[in-house]
Amino acid sequence: MVAVFNKELLSWYLITLKLKETLESGIPSSPNSGNRSIEFPEQQLEKLQQEPTESLQEKLEQARQDNVASSWSKLSIYKIPHYLRDSNGDDDKAFSPQIVSIGPYHHGKKRLRPMDRHKWRSLNHVLKRAKHDLRIYLDSMKEIEERARSCYEGPFSLSSNEFVEMLVLDGCFVLELFKGAKEGFTQLGYSRNDPVFVMRGSMHSIQRDMIMLENQLPLFVLVRLLGIQLGKPDTKGQVGALALRFFDPLMPSDEPMTKSDRNKLESSLGNTITFDPLSDQEGHCLEVFRRSLLRAGPQPVPRIRIKGVADKRRQQLIHCVTELKKAGIKFKKRKTDRFWDIKFKDGILRIPRLLIHDGTKSLFLNLIAFEQCHLDCNKDITSYFIFMDNLINSPEDVGYLHYRGIIEHWLGSDAEVANLFNRLCQEVVFDDDNSYLSPLSEDVNRYYNHRWNTWCASLRHNYFSNPWAIISLVAAIVLLILTLAQTYYSIYGYYRPAR
Predict the structure, then answer these.
(1) Can you tell me the distance from the alpha carbon of 308 to that of 312, in angstroms, rounded to the nearest whole number?
(2) Is beta strand 330-334 parallel, antiparallel or unpaired with respect to 348-352?
(3) pTM for the whole thing?
(4) How many CA atoms lie within 13 A of 352 on its CB side?
(5) What distance in Å separates the CA atoms of residue 227 and residue 179, rounded to the nearest whole number?
(6) Cα–Cα distance measured from residue 476 to residue 486, given in angstroms and rounded to the nearest whole number
(7) Whose CB among 203, 225, 268, 482 lies 3.0–4.6 Å from 171's, allowing a Cys bridge?
(8) What's CA 120's distance to the chain center, in Å?
């Protein structure tokens, strides 16, 4: 044993031993001898190229299957991208169900298992009411299993039997809720005191969960299950209509369209409204809800510009409410149930009424996420919210829009509403060339940049804001005229004396 009296030397000695042990543990040993050798990265790569392992072959095969065009063309139910989920911080509840799971993404999660008991109750009601055997539903879902799987993004751990069972259980549960909202749950055989199948209690939370992008079933699955229950193979349009009725409380506008407004809409579209939210059975309930919101939405005017990566600086489409008011722009509520249909003419910005409640943020975020993920749809919902985000920079902006009847909210304060809009479109990829509001924004900006409008607005604000200011201004003008007249006659009398 060697006694070491220098503490610094002892520390370096121990560090050297530790480094030696670490290096030796990371050096692979040769199978033919007890000597150790270091294998450099170039040698490892060469070895992998010469002797591909079975796992590499499997990965290449999976990559080949993923590159097949058909595997992506039917995709419609996406996982929320990390850049959208992370940008909303503590708002993960907006994307993740809290009560019920629908589909494979959140299937089997611990906090959602209590609702499975009620799913089995609903399935039992369906089988008992229709006098069907469960095997009929399982066999039918087995036939469309691959088609249903192709609608989801990425692999999941459910086996074939588990996936088919999930389609039947979740699908019948969804249809029971849809039919109960229309016909009444007591008519379907449920008790008035049922903890789930009543239009009160937790139903609002269930509706909010079922409209989430990650919590969807393909529409054709629901169509086939409803066809089996009714004994009619052709139920096109019925499921979509039931879905819209069930999700109606989540609509962001409760402003009914008047008959005259509807006639104007039809005449502007050539007396024909070609939109049909129920026509496409390849979608899901969130997509049906989105199409019902947009209906025959306006299309942006094509503009010639070099395309490129979306620039966040170009998302500033318009100035905020406070600044626009200073330029003399007025805000009025537009009577229409199409909340996105904004108009601007003669310095007046007409915006439809928007209703905001505690479930609105989740709905808006999932609609935006769907437009970000699905390449076959336009970005009209995203365009609207970016426009509103530009308009609203402060609680004062929200307060004024509330005063004008444009925003109605059930949140705690105007500051919460401002924060909602300011965070909705963070990290969203957007090109304002494709926005239906771009021409309108350009008209507003031209009006804003005209100095004469700003001067007139300043004059009205400073001198015509109340009756006393108007009286003072008129008195000052009269006094100025009298003073000028007196001055004129004094000078005139001096040079032209009376004869």
Answers:
(1) 12
(2) parallel
(3) 0.75
(4) 18
(5) 13
(6) 15
(7) 225
(8) 31
Please name the helix (run of DSSP H) or strand (run of DSSP E) that holds residue 355, with its range, or none: strand 354-356
How is residue 428 written in tokens?
A: 């969203």
Backbone φ/ψ region at 437: left (φ over 0), alpha (ψ -120 to 50), beta? alpha
Specify whether the CB–CB gap between 209 and 150 falls below 8 A: no
Distance (Å, rounded) from C-alpha 249 to C-alpha 14? 70
Per-residue model confidence as pLDDT tens for the chain (499 residues): 445 455 666 666 667 766 666 666 655 544 444 444 455 555 555 554 555 566 787 777 766 766 654 556 778 999 998 888 876 655 678 999 999 999 999 999 999 999 999 999 999 999 999 999 999 999 999 999 999 999 998 778 899 999 999 999 999 999 999 999 999 999 999 999 999 999 888 899 999 999 999 999 999 999 999 999 998 877 778 899 999 999 999 998 766 555 555 455 445 444 434 445 555 456 899 999 999 998 755 554 444 443 433 444 445 578 999 999 988 899 999 988 888 999 999 899 999 999 998 888 899 999 999 999 998 888 899 999 999 999 999 999 999 999 999 999 988 899 999 999 988 888 787 776 678 898 999 999 988 887 555 555 555 555 555 666 666 667 778 888 888 877 877 776 666 665 5
DSSP state, 77?
B
Cβ contact 170:119 at 8 Å? yes
3-class SS of residue 109: coil
Residue with tokens 């304002």: 432
Helix pair 134-143, 219-230: axis angle to 10 deg: 150
Residue 252: closest CA among 364, 162, 85: 364
End-to-end CA distance of the chain: 137
Is 36 strand, coil or helix?
A: strand
3-state secondary structure of 344: strand
Q: Which two tokens stand for residue 418?
A: 């401002």
Q: Count CB neighbours of 8 within 10 A.
A: 8
Q: What is the rounded distance in angstroms from the CA atom of residue 165 to the CA atom of residue 329?
A: 58
Q: Give the residue from 237, 73, 213 showing the smallest Cα distance to 151.
A: 73
Sign of CA dihedral 258, 261, 267, 271: negative
Cβ-contact 102, 217 below 8 angstroms: yes
Burial level of 168, CB count in 10 A (0-12/13-18/19+)?
buried
The DSSP 8-state label assigned to residue 408 in this structure reads E
If one counts every other C-beta atom within 10 angstroms of the C-beta of residue 331, the result is 18
Q: Supply the DSSP string of 173-217, one letter for each residue.
A: HHHHHHHHHHH-TGGGT--TT-SSSSSSTTHHHHHHHHTSTTS--
Query: Encoding tokens for residue 83?
Result: 């850049």
d(CA 379, CA 400): 27
Cβ atoms 305, 438 nearer than 8 A = no
Residues 456, 31: Cα–Cα separation, whole Å: 90
